[in-house]
Amino acid sequence: MSISDTFTEAPSPLSAGQTGTAAKENTQETLVLVRPDDWHLHLRDGEVLRSVVGDSARQFGRAIIMPNLKPPVTTTADALAYHGRILAALQQAGVPTGRFQPLMTLYLTDHTSADEILRARDSGIVHGVKLYPAGATTNSDSGVTDLLGYCRAALEAMQACGMPLLVHGEVTDPDIDLFDREAVFIDRVMKPLRQAFPALKVVFEHITTADGVAYVREAPGPVAATITAHHLLYNRNALFKGGLRPHWYCLPVLKREHHRLALLEAATSGDGRFFLGTDSAPHPKGAKEQDCGCAGCYTAHHAMALYATAFESVGRLQHLEAFASLNGPAFYGLSPNADTLTLERIAQPVPDVLPLANTEVVPLAAGETLAWRVQAG
Ligand code: NCD
Ligand code: ZN
């Protein structure tokens, strides 16, 4: 059975790294990387934040923190306050001061001013501004309704001061098929945006299609993309394997196998435009297992093992460090982390559930066994 056949049978691909031809040739037992960063992470707030923050800090040096709280983080003052709560949660989780740096973002609205962008830049803690098209995903009700109509002043200021725009790249028009929303977004929003603001740094977040890959590869100017572990490991069959599988439901939704293969090729190619963003998005078990379940996969707990599995499936572990640790800082104008992370080939069972405040979260690939784990320390 080929690797792609194995993956098409998702959601049980996690032994594929050991059975595929490429993986058999790779007998590496440990992998030492410059410490990776997560360029797209949902940490939430309050008790949930306290439950999850340690999972990211165990693996990553920094993370871009998504601003889609309720209410969203729309001002520098909000971002500073949220930054403080994350630092307090890190301390409570026993993470040494400075070990994990939250890189904050603002939530772009129709009303974000140029002054707010300058305040964000001057704060030193805000590293991006997130575009959620109104209604595109979880907590996006305050999102932008007309980017080039209402946000020109903010975009102008961002372009001038080098503040990246982080884009949830899906149109929300109900007439557009759910599986086509990223491709249509490229034509309707991305191209006009890039034409109007050619020097604006843009991160096309969590791309899920061959169209997204092709656009980012070929676009002139400062454009990059993050890719999640789940979009590298699973195609849309995972959502329906033997029944409806809510824990594989995220936005943008998993796509066809040929899209997964295009993402895997891009991520593992060493191309500096593609880097790691887990989009780890915890929701309580009960909020996903219901008649209208929430979108979001919880992957932070074993993110690096998932990415290693994906890279190993195509025999390209040698490019994991560029994707996870080097390309992101280069795009954001930051130095790579000074320390390292070691992955070791020791089987790691994924827990069925993890504690989440006073409830539980089901991590992605719960109950399966990963070939890699992060070395403690
Ligand atoms: C995210 C969430 O739960 O906040 N959900 C998801 O499916 N990825 C929102 C998002 O990033 O789209
Ligand atoms: Zn997200």
Name its key features.
TIM Barrel, binds zinc ion, 377 residues, globular, alpha/beta, three-stranded antiparallel β-sheet, binds N-carbamoyl-L-aspartate
- Helix-strand string: HHHEEHEHEHEHHEHEHEHHEHHHEEEEEE
Bulk shape: globular
Structural class: alpha/beta
- Quote the average pLDDT: 93
Q: Could you list the spans in which at least 5 consecutive residues all have pLDDT below 50?
A: 1-12, 15-26
Radius of gyration: 19 Å
CATH homologous superfamily label: Metal-dependent hydrolases
Counted by DSSP, the helix tally is: 15
Largest sheet: 8 strands, parallel
Q: CATH first level: which class?
A: Alpha Beta
Bound molecules: N-carbamoyl-L-aspartate, zinc ion
Find the count of extended strands (DSSP E, 2+ residues).
Answer: 15
Number of domains: 1
Helical content (DSSP H or I, runs of 4+): 25-40%
CATH architecture: Alpha-Beta Barrel
Work out the strand percent.
15-25%
> What is the CATH topology classification name?
TIM Barrel
Verbal overview:
It is a single chain. By secondary structure, the chain is an alpha/beta fold. It has a single domain, classed as TIM Barrel. Helices cover 36% and strands 15% of the residues. The protein has 15 helices and 15 strands. The protein has an eight-stranded parallel sheet with strand order 2-3-4-5-6-7-8-9. Strands 1-10-15 form a three-stranded antiparallel sheet, covered by helices on one side. A two-stranded antiparallel ribbon has the order 11-14. Helix 4 links the parallel strand 2 and strand 3. Helix 4 packs across helix 5 and helix 6 runs parallel beside helix 8. The protein is globular, with a radius of gyration of 19 Å. N-carbamoyl-L-aspartate binds next to loops. The site of zinc ion (ZN) has 5 residues, from loops.
